[in-house]
From TrEMBL:
Keyword set includes Cell inner membrane: no
Organism in which the protein naturally occurs: Cladophialophora psammophila CBS 110553
Main location: membrane
Membrane topology qualifier: Multi-pass membrane protein
TM helices/strands, residue ranges: 30-47, 67-88, 164-183, 207-227
InterPro entries assigned to the protein according to its UniProt record, in alphabetical order: ADTRP_AIG1
Pfam name, any one: Far-17a_AIG1
Record's keyword annotation contains Transcription regulation: no
Stretch forming the signal peptide: none
Protein name: FAR-17a/AIG1-like protein
Subcellular location: Endomembrane system
Record keywords, A-Z: Membrane, Transmembrane, Transmembrane helix
Amino acid sequence: MASHPRSQTSAMGSLIQRHPLQKLHSPSRGASALLHSVGLASFAYSFNWLNTHPNHINSAYGWHFQYLTIIGLTLATITFTLGLLADLTLSPRLFAAKNISSMCSAPMEVLVSLLYWGLRAIDPDLVVPKELQLPLPTDISFHLTPSALLLLDLLLFSPPWTITVLPAILLSTVIAFLYWFWIELCYSYNGFYPYPLFAMLNQTQRVGLFGASAVVMAGNTVVLKWVHWNVNGFKKGGAEMPGRLKG
């Protein structure tokens, strides 16, 4: 017996708002839109800080994009912008685009948090010269808040990622070595590295550092998928695009 068209439309609308393996409705103009709005406000504060507290990096080649922190913050901003647009329009395509972007931005921001706070606990001068060190609230906004907000978005408002281990390693390796080439280009113009640690290492050691970072970022992807499964459950089946819903 055929379903009533109105009931089919209602069921599809419900699916668009909530994937079977996510905790809360998203895209939605409620909690999901609130999280993405709060995130964008936090990211805007961080970018504004760079302009209102200028230093020699502002006039250097590559600007603050020499820092993996700022590259990650930019990706987080793109992710949450797509998320908020999806919330406001209830667009499944924008929702899928947000989730695809999250597969890159969330592992990178977790990497930034792990490396920054880990090295800072050993010696703050490894990651930031004394003259550029930030007040703690601002430091948190740059180096902890983005990863925390992306983690909340993943666990509460996102379907499970479909990326597997080998593509995660490939993606992380490409990002790590593109960043290596970028900072070497910036060094050729500026005569200094953005992070003091890079200057303490020789070329071979820097390559090893970027390779290790790629492995950690890929590991973050696997761990975040595992955490999502444990929080939201796991459903066997064919591979779907993240956020794409079967009719």
